[in-house]
Amino acid sequence: MILALVGSPRRGNSLLACQYISKKLPLEIVNVAKKRIEPCKACYSCIFGEECKIDDDVKEIIEKINEADFVLISSPVYWLDLTGKMKMLLDRLFMAERHIKDGKKGAIIYFYAFRELRGWASNTYNILLRAMGIEPIAVIPINAALPGEVFLEENLRKLDMLVEAIKDGRRIVLENQCPVCLGEIVGFDLTCPICGSKFDRDLNLIEKGDRFSLEWIKEHYENLRRMKDLYLKRKDELKALTKKHIG
Question: Domains of the chain by range and CATH?
Answer without folding.
Answer: 2-246 (3.40.50.360)
